[in-house]
Amino acid sequence: MSRVLVTGGAGFIGSFVVDQLRAAGHEAVIFDVRESPHHARGEVPTVIGDVLDYESVCEAALGCDAIAHLAAAADVGEVAKDPETAERLNSRGTFNVLEAAREQGVGRVIYASTIWVYSEAEGSVDEDVPLHAPAHLYTATKLAGELYCRSYSELFGVDTTILRFGIPYGPRARPAAVVPSFVARALAGEPLSIAGSGEQTRRFVYVEDLAEGVVRALAPVAANRTYNLVGSQDVSIREIAHTVRDLVGDVDVVHTEGRAGDFNGGAEISGTRAARELGWHPETEFREGVSRYIAWHRRQEALPPRRAHEPIAERVRSLGSNAGIAVAAGVAGALAALLSRWDVVTDPVSFLGAMVLLGVPVALIAGVDWARDRARAGLVILAMLVGVVFQALTPQTRDIVQDVLHHRIMLALVVLAAVSALAAGRAWRADREGQRDAAG
After folding, report:
1. Domain extent listing, the chain
2. What is the pTM of this model?
3. What CATH class is the domain 3-174+203-233+265-302?
């Protein structure tokens, strides 16, 4: 039995790799930026971390016999939209995993690459065919990871296995992927859009078959080898649309402009080496796999929404954030009540104006979406009213405030500094979350 760290283990392919590892008697450890939505809490050992954080990767790798590195920016459309984040995640993230394996003495790194590396090739190709410079950034970043693997193997003796995945499909897939997208549209009665002529082909591979290939790659024979894990047949985009239409119902098929740098499917990719050395070959025919996905999708649609489990650290941060917002709103309410007692503002309209004037900054800092985040909006309003009541029941508060106003310039500077710091903190956290979403 081996202890295997699975980066991206909460994701589409990674969650199935975790399942297959456990079924084969291995100990799987999930390393991801979130808890797995596909496993019960506490069912699988989990380390919450980011592959861009070397220290957390290194700590998680301690005591592991192998690392299955699947964490990546895998949506080619998102890669094109945010190339910098994709490059860091796919290239630097892989570097961090390899360096952690070297430092911690991990026996093997299994690297999830892609058959997109053959996107410029023609004819029949296998793992030894010379590769052309890729046109798409996604392919370039995955190819960079392959080169890092080979370098670490040669320079530092870190055993690596490169697996070039076919196009994965099946349950838990990203909604934006071609099969889920077609199925969702067909179930909604919408037309199926095909980029280009629809004659371009893909070597699809059912996700559970793919996960089994990852587990088989732990075998000693796979050390420092490269394998294509692909389906048994080429499937055109047009065939996908017709398969989905046949299984779901009659919908229209329309054609749109093709994507630049797309995988052209001109190469016939051989999976012979994986069959010969690992005993792996795909078990699931494409139509059967699509049928299973549709059944899973319908089951998911029938389930009530499940609240995601938040890590304890996230809960503590959330409680602390809400407490800070409540205090700020309460102070704002008390100040509004105080201002309404001053000679120049004694009418109710002015009181409401003061409430709004002081409440708006609090709401902006809190990031309240009045239309959607009703709980936090209610917290701001309730806390301000509590501040009003507290001030009304504590007459001496006005005297205290008058003393403070003697230092009003200093007070204004402190308030401005606090608001600026809170705004900067929110911007930093938003940027951080954006980077993590790309990893998920």
Report:
1. 3-174+203-233+265-302, 312-406
2. 0.69
3. alpha beta
Contacts of residue 368, Cβ cutoff 8 Å, sequence gap at least 6: 376, 377, 380
297 HSE (CA, 13 A, CB side)? 24
Distance CA 108, CA 97 (A): 11
pLDDT per residue as tens digits for the range 237-294: 899 999 999 999 888 888 877 655 555 556 789 999 999 999 999 999 999 999 999 9
CA distance 66 to 351: 65
Amino acid at 6: V
Name the residue among 13, 37, 29, 23 with its Cα closest to residue 310. Answer: 37
Residues 6+ apart with CB under 8 A from 104: 58, 61, 62, 63, 64
Closest by CA position to 248, among listed 289, 286, 290: 290
Q: What is residue 85's DSSP assignment?
A: H
Instruction: State both tokens at 41.
Output: 């809490």
**For residue 69, what are the β-bridge partners?**
7, 111
- pLDDT tens, residue by residue, 282-334: 999 999 999 999 999 999 988 776 554 455 555 555 566 666 666 665 566 56
Strand pairing of 235-236 and 201-202?
antiparallel
